[in-house]
Design brief:
single chain; alpha/beta; SH3 type barrels; Rossmann fold; 10-stranded mixed beta sheet; 6-stranded antiparallel beta sheet; 18 helices; 23% strand
């Protein structure tokens, strides 16, 4: 390089010398060492179901086709004006063209500013319900192109994510992924650089989402791209600790002509800040027999039968009262079974005791897990106890040690250390010393055939999905990433069949955690399905086509089945989970899940407050994705709900009532964490902020939203006026000299 400088300096013509120096400096600034690949043309996504509006970028459909993804070769056009069905277009060079509205499809290029929203398309409540102050936060499944979804998630979660687990396309050359709406196969000479360009954009966003103080990135891959991926991760996350783990996923192996039989895949773990692998009693490599020692805490099960079909009418002999002494928090008496024709309200109360029945949250009569005689025996042995008391709903929970736990006591896996004041056993696990897992994992539970495809077939017996991960392999990965963070937020933006959320829910059941996940997947159909659908005259956007997309056909139904214990065919799930916690799959999982479609909004409509319902889920997510959501603008000008973790001031002239409601709000289970104030005036916002408890984070709408969602454009340094927010950090209140509006 010094020699080139000398050569340029030797040029006698000063103008030529300066021109050469400028051009050389441009080249020198863009030269990179390490992994070098082409950054291909910006990715784009077609949105066939979106309405065309002035200012939109569009593609033109081929002549005479119905398929709204079959565009011509004229490139991208911008809509100048719309008059009925006539549309005037302009290209990048200023050329004008007129087209019919029906022939246009909206497109979004990665580089355009877009303003996303979320539309709820359903939910499953098994984690307490939104009207229960002790409920769990919600998992979310988002149907979207994952780059735009990641940009959307920057608004609520930039720098706040505890772990990202992804299983990206492996780029096998078998048309297993798309770049710019086209499948990439092994005939494409640029498939590796396209894949790297595709991954780099998403990893850069993942980096912004991860908590810089402590978080973990996990990326699984096979041998096709493992080496390039390792180099790419090192470039995107320079200086971070990274390790590669080898995981045996098929012990029988996959035979290949003139090659070794493949049995493994790989997982890169990137530890950011203070993060490191959680310690475990199972190193995941040594003798398989030791795998049974899971290192979990001793779990007491709820006596109420959790299955949806566990009703009083099914087993009347399992419906009896349990009498609790509320002063001592102990089980004082076990009543007799109540015949089906006898109203439970006719059963006499016991003086000084509280009568507990097996009822659902909605008051439906269910049944206990065991008979009255068996339960009385467990009480006598100290193997049953009173659980927590729900003050809001005036309910006591009853806990017991199920047969599996009692057998573990007999085998010595659980040690009895004493009894409490009520005679209840005090227990702890007999474990090996905790340690970090090995970098080679050899566990039968990680077999992708048995515990990936096999489990998915149990959940969705009428549907197929290629190559799902072993549920237990993902669970072990997440245990090592967030096992010591019971409230962790985990994102998977290559969600596929939804294994990540399923595994996280099992991890929550193991240690009573409240972890939540956000799954992002598109709604594409497979190559074979697309061919069959087109032969039927269907195209993307048609209901029959969309119903077969991965999100609607696989991911959402899988999460419904796993949580409810009911398969996609409407029957209780068969079989049981085999590793770690062993329990019937039909019991389901105590989690809340909501399903969303990503929408693309008009910035002017948002700023006018006319699309609040579209951004409402993002505000709810920002406030923790738990409790009730504020979905519409209140007539009183503000909303602060008792069962929500946030409030919104829509009309600043109504600030006195809003401030008073915030001050009166009392809920230890769901404290207010965020307040959103709609105003274009920074001064007005700051004046109202001065009246609010300093422990609550305040955000100004819609400026904060709009600045964040000028997405796909280079990140700018923002001034205070761009969308000021007050962090939830206690500080001394300033002297209030300005008048409150």
């Amino acid at each position: 390089m010094a020699h080139i400088d000398n050569l340029i300096s030797a040029v006698k013509d000063p103008q030529l010398r300066e021109a050469l120096r400028i051009e050389y400096e441009k080249i020198a600034q863009t030269r990179k060492f390490g992994l070098v690949f082409d950054r291909h043309q910006p990715e784009s996504v077609l949105l066939p179901s979106f309405a065309v509006r002035p200012g939109d970028k569009v593609r033109v459909l081929q002549e005479g086709v119905r398929d709204r993804t079959a565009v011509d070769e004229t490139g991208v056009w911008t809509v100048v004006s719309i008059a009925g069905s006539d549309v005037q277009l302009r290209d990048a060079e200023g050329n004008l063209r007129n087209e019919q509205l029906a022939r246009l499809v909206v497109t979004r290029e990665f580089g355009d500013s877009i303003y996303p929203g979320l539309k709820s398309v359903g939910r499953v409540l098994r984690g307490g319900g939104i009207d229960d102050a002790g409920d769990k936060p919600f998992h979310a499944v988002v149907n979207a192109e994952n780059y735009h979804a990641l940009q959307a998630l920057l608004y609520p979660y930039e720098g706040r994510v505890d772990a990202i687990y992804i299983d990206p396309p492996y780029n096998t050359g078998s048309r297993d992924w798309k770049y710019n709406n086209n499948y990439v196969d092994d005939n494409d000479p640029y498939r590796h650089s396209k894949w790297l360009s595709f991954m780099e954009k998403r990893l850069e966003l993942a980096k912004r989402l991860l908590n810089p103080a402590s978080s973990v990135l996990v990326v699984t891959i096979d041998e096709k791209e493992v080496h390039r991926l390792g180099l790419l991760i090192e470039q995107v996350f320079p200086g971070r600790r990274m390790q590669m783990v080898t995981i045996a996923i098929n012990h029988r192996g996959v035979a290949r002509l003139k090659e070794f039989t493949r049995v493994e895949e790989y997982a890169f773990f990137v530890f950011i800040g203070e993060a490191g692998p959680s310690l475990t009693s199972d190193d995941l490599l040594t003798a398989e027999a030791e795998e049974e020692k899971t290192g979990e805490v001793v779990r007491w099960e709820r006596l109420t039968k959790g299955s949806n079909n566990a009703l009083r009418t099914d087993r009347p002999n399992l419906f009896y009262p349990v009498y609790v002494d509320p002063e001592r928090g102990r089980i004082a008496k076990v009543g007799d079974p109540v015949p089906l024709n006898v109203d439970r309200k006719s059963v006499p109360e016991e003086p000084g005791l509280v009568t507990v029945w097996p009822l659902s949250m909605t008051g439906v009569e269910k049944r206990w897990q065991c008979s009255a005689d068996t339960f009385q025996s467990l009480v006598d042995q100290g193997m049953a106890k009173v659980g927590s008391y729900d003050r809001k709903n005036d309910r006591w929970s009853i806990l017991y040690l199920n047969r599996g736990q009692r057998e573990r006591i007999e085998r010595g896996e659980i040690r009895v250390t004493g009894r409490d004041a009520n005679g209840v056993l005090e227990l702890e696990m007999n474990e090996r010393p905790l340690r970090a897992a090995m970098t080679i994992w050899n566990r039968s539970s990680h077999n992708a055939g048995y515990y990936g495809s096999g489990i998915l077939s149990a959940l969705l017996p009428d549907r197929k999905f290629p190559f799902p991960k072993s549920l237990y392999a993902v669970e072990d990965s997440l245990r090592l990433a967030v096992g010591d963070k019971p409230d962790a937020l985990v994102i998977d933006f290559f969600a596929g069949s939804g294994t990540t959320a399923h595994a996280l829910a099992r991890l929550n059941r193991e240690d009573d955690g409240r972890r939540r996940s956000i799954l992002v997947t598109n709604n594409e159909v497979s190559v074979a399905e697309a061919k069959a659908l087109r032969e039927q005259g269907l195209s993307p956007g048609d209901p029959a086509w969309e119903d077969l997309g991965i999100c609607r056909h696989i991911t959402i139904p899988r999460m419904r089945a796993a949580v409810t214990g009911i398969s996609s065919t409407g029957n209780p799930l068969k079989g049981e989970y085999k590793f770690g916690q062993v329990f019937p799959m039909s019991d389901g999982l105590d989690e809340n899940v909501e399903f969303f479609d990503l929408t693309y909004e008009d910035a002017s409509m948002v700023s006018l407050g006319r699309r609040f319902e579209a951004i409402a889920p993002l505000l709810w997510m920002k406030a923790g994705a738990k409790g009730e959501r504020i979905d519409k603008i209140s007539d009183q000008g503000w909303e602060v709900l008792d069962d929500a973790t946030y409030g919104v001031l829509f009309d600043t002239s109504s600030w006195p009532g809003f401030v008073e409601a915030v001050a009166k709000r009392k809920s230890e289970a769901l404290p207010l964490s965020h307040l959103f104030i709609v105003t274009d005036s920074l001064v007005e916002f700051q004046q109202i902020a001065g009246r609010i408890d300093q422990g609550i984070e305040l955000v100004r709408l819609y400026a904060d939203y709009l600045r964040t969602f000028e997405i796909n454009t280079p990140r700018r340094n923002r001034s205070v006026g761009d969308g000021w927010r007050r962090p939830a950090v206690p500080r001394q209140r300033d002297n209030e000299q300005a008048s409150v509006p």
